[in-house]
Amino acid sequence: MQTVKNGVATGPKKSFSLLKTRRQKDAAFSLLLLTPAIICCVIFILFPIIDSVKMSFTTYKIANLTQNIPGEWNNFANYTRLWSSGKLQDSIQVTLLFVFVTVALSFVIGMALALMLNSNIRGARFLRSVMMIPWVIPTVISGLLWAWIYANPYGLLQYVISVVTDGRVTGFGILNNQETAIWGVIIVALWKQIPLITLLLLAGMQNVPEDILEAAKLDGANYLQCLFKIIFPFMRSVIAVTVSLSIIDNFKQYPLFATLTNGGPASATTTLAVLSYDEAFVNYNYGSGAAVTTVWLLLMVVVVFVFNAIFRKKDD
C-alpha cells in the first residue's frame, strides 16, 4: 500500500521504482565495462570474418594484394572449383575424422585420469603438475619433438619397434603411410590436449557435493551408479564447456599438421586449415583460401551448435 509522507510517495511503488532504477544503472555500468571488449571483438574478429566471406566470392590473387586492386566478383566460382576438384570434400572428411576421434578419445582418457586423480592416491598433486608439461610446451615444439620420434629409420619409435620385434620390422614410418599418417597426428594431439581436459574435468569433479555421494553409498549405490547418476549430472555444464572448447581447438588445429605432415602424404592429412593455407599462401589464390575458410567456419559452428543442442536436449 502506498502512503504519502511529507509530500513524498513511499511504499511498494517507490521500492519497485528504486529497484528498477538500480537495475538500469547496473546494466549501464556493466555495458560500460564490456564496451572495450565488444569494440575489440568487432574490430579484430567480426570485421575480418565479414571481409573474408566477401573475399571468398571474388577472384583475389597476389596481384590484387600488391597493387591494391579490388577483387573481381565471381559469385560461387571459388566454391565450385574447389568442389569439382575434390579437395574440399576430402579436406572436410579428414577434418571431421580428426576432430571427432581426437575429441572423443581425449574426453574418455581425460575423464579416466580425472577420476584417478580425484581419488586418494599418493602423489596426486605431483601428477597434476607433471601431466601439464605437454600442454605447456608450444604446439610447434611439440610437433617437432614428435617428428623426431616418428622419424624413419632413426626415430625413437622405429628403434623401439626394432627392439621389440628383434629387428624383424624395419622401415616403419607412421607419417609416411596414407593409412596411418592421420593417426600419428591424432596421437600427438591427444598427448598435447589431454592434460588440459583432465584438469578441467577434475575441477568440475571436485565440486560434486560429498554429502550426496555419501548418502548414495549408504543407500547401497555402487561406484558406477554414483558415477552416472550423481557425478556426471553434476558435471554437465563443465563437460559441455570442455567438449565445446575441444571441438573448436581441434577444428582450428594447424601447427601440428604443418610440422608433422604438411598435409601429406598425398593429401591424407589435408584438413580445412591446411587447405586454406595452401590455397592462400602457396597458390596465392586468396579468394579460394577465403572460400575454404568460410566453409571451415560454418562447419565448426554447425558441429558445436549440434553438440550443444543434443546436450541440452538430453539435459531436459
From TrEMBL:
Pfam family, one: BPD_transp_1
Domain ABC transmembrane type-1: 92-307
GO BP term, pick one: transmembrane transport
Transmembrane segments: 27-50, 92-117, 129-149, 181-205, 226-248, 290-311
Membrane topology term: Multi-pass membrane protein
Subcellular location(s) of the protein: Cell membrane
This protein's name: Sugar ABC transporter permease
Naturally occurring in which organism (per UniProt): Candidatus Allofournierella merdipullorum
